[in-house]
Amino acid sequence: MEPVAFVEVVESVELHELRRNVLRGGDPTAIVEDPRDDRPDSLHLAVRLDDGLVAIGSFYVSTSPRDPTQPSMQLRYLATDPGWQRHGFGAMLLREGEALLIRRGVDSLWANARDTALGFYLCEGWETLPNSEHLSAETQLPHTVIVKQLGHLER
Questions:
Q1: Of 50, 59, 91, 106, which has the fewest beta carbons less than 10 angstroms from its beta carbon?
Q2: What is the spatial distance between Cα 122 and Cα 146, in angstroms, rounded to a whole number?
Q3: What's the start-to-end Cα distance of the chain, in Å?
Q4: Model confidence over 32-57: pLDDT tens digits?
Q5: Where are the domains of the chain?
Q6: Largest CA distance in the chain
Q7: What pTM was computed for the model?
Q8: Which candidate, 123, 124, 116, places its Cα nearest to that of 144?
Q9: Any bridge partners for residue 152, and if so which?
Q10: Which pLDDT band, with edges at 50, 70 and 90, does 152 fall under?
Q11: Mode of pairing for the β-strands spanning 127-128 and 142-149
């Protein structure tokens, strides 16, 4: 019987190991917590497969870099276990997150995307914010601000 992957809401602490291993190169001293992790308006999702997490992501209430008047959330720490990349689990998590956020009344999302992942985000309907390229203070890797409008999706 084929294992079934599903998206679930989790506590942020469950995401720390994958955050560290995928996004911080396994560095045991790397900070993998966000000060907003325990806020009740934050959303932490994981794709579970065979009792293990294969993809994770967190969403935090934040001011949109494109339009500060819109209800917006920031996507952070989207990561897929390297052994499970290119199987659609990151996209599965994003789509479920977007659906949950639409039900909460969120109109837009934004993120600081690693430039190496821009193709993935563009395929998922995100747009780059012009002239937003920068080096991440945490990783020193090239990033670009990306945005996605949710208001046009079905509520």
A1: 50
A2: 9
A3: 34
A4: 999 999 999 999 999 999 879 999 99
A5: 6-149
A6: 49
A7: 0.90
A8: 116
A9: none
A10: low
A11: antiparallel
